[in-house]
Design a protein that fits this description.
DUF6304; 50% strand; two-stranded antiparallel ribbon; 12 strands; elongated; mainly beta; 2 domains; 10-stranded antiparallel β-sheet
């Protein structure tokens, strides 16, 4: 799988900053405030080896990024009555509590379909969105973010 990247936002008690999220289908990488984090899941993002972030610049618990909110949009292909279409998936992930909360919203043709409640992982949130789509609409994606939240 080719790496995919999306621009997004990172927020914590020090403010809001632009972020870049990248995945190769196996690992997630995040670049914020000049620091790189990587992990197999969002709740396991750790500073990249050899490049520890400035002390106190980020909330870390057991070495993993915490006490923050990540938000990003990504294009997502869908089929509408068998015809390929483009939609946008808005992702909001809160790492502020013991268990991460993920909320997804699919924007398609002026309508918004939301996961409605915080989900624990990306696959569950996508499944919640798929369940509320009209019968002739289906998501055209594989979940390439293992353990995504």
């Amino acid at each position: 799988m080719t790496d995919e990247s999306w621009a997004g936002w990172y927020r914590d008690n020090k403010g809001s900053d632009a972020a870049v999220l990248t995945t190769d289908g196996q690992r997630i990488r995040l670049r914020i405030r000049g620091a790189d984090f990587e992990g197999e899941s969002f709740d396991g993002l750790r500073p990249v080896a050899g490049a520890p972030p400035e002390d106190g610049l980020f909330g870390l618990r057991d070495g993993a990024l915490t006490d923050c909110v990540l938000e990003w949009d990504r294009p997502l292909p869908v089929l509408v009555a068998g015809t390929p279409r483009h939609a946008t998936l808005t992702c909001l992930l809160s790492l502020r509590r013991a268990d991460p909360d993920l909320h997804l919203a699919l924007h398609l043709d002026g309508a918004v379909y939301e996961s409605a409640r915080a989900e624990r992982d990306f696959a569950a949130a996508l499944a919640a969105v798929q369940r509320i789509l009209p019968d002739d609409v289906s998501l055209q994606t594989c979940v390439a973010w293992p353990g995504a939240a």
